[in-house]
# Entry
Amino acid sequence: MNSDALAYNEFAEVALSYLNQLYVAARRLTGNSADADDIVQETYELAFQHYGELRSLAHCRPWLYRILHRQFVTRYRRQRSGPQLVLIDGGADDGEIATPHVPFDDDLLERLSLQEVRNAIESLPADLRVAVTLCDIEGFSYAEIADITETPVGTVRSRIARARAKLMRKLQTHAEECGIRRRTS
Amino acid sequence: MSGCPAFEDLSALIDGDLSNEKEVRQHVDRCVTCRRQVDSLAALKRVVGRAYDSELPSPGLRSAVTARLPKRRRRRTS
# Structure
């Protein structure tokens, strides 16, 4: 077996092992399974065309996420009017972060369904949603997220904090509307 | 440290991605308000982390992906 074939086989095995993770990431980004399927297929097509550029299989996962993210941004720019694809929330990186006044706790969170949490995540502006989910779900470091999204580390840090502040407020409000907020008096 | 750290610092603290972590952590250990905020952030991180645990791609996605992949370079037979 020659080295090209070996590299292809190794890459294919490693890359395809991330298919489920990439699908879930795409699902979060797009908000629907049809677009998620398309983005995952495009990601793998590009990855297999360019896998020779990958220095090491150890970097395969963040490299695939970077391609996925680029495909999402490209699609977003084509579908700019789509309600799910709000990339910037009126200058999402500017200004003070409005922090929640009353911290919530496990008690409140445990009363919310995963679907309610997913709804809150998917209502975030895309740049915030990408940053916080790459951190909290995929477990990437700030430096890795900066590389994947091609933004400075400081911006990643700010976006994650903004996403969390928004999620806290959204979940608090939702829980209160549903009558499941625990009073803190 | 004068005053409480910014929300952004508390957020980075729970990710272990803060340059002045020791200083901020010392403050949080003494400040009830910041400790509650950190506890809330940590709880939120856990919930977000498992929000998509049940999501799976359709059974046909893997075969659709592999069908569209560029063909592997053929090996020469000597």
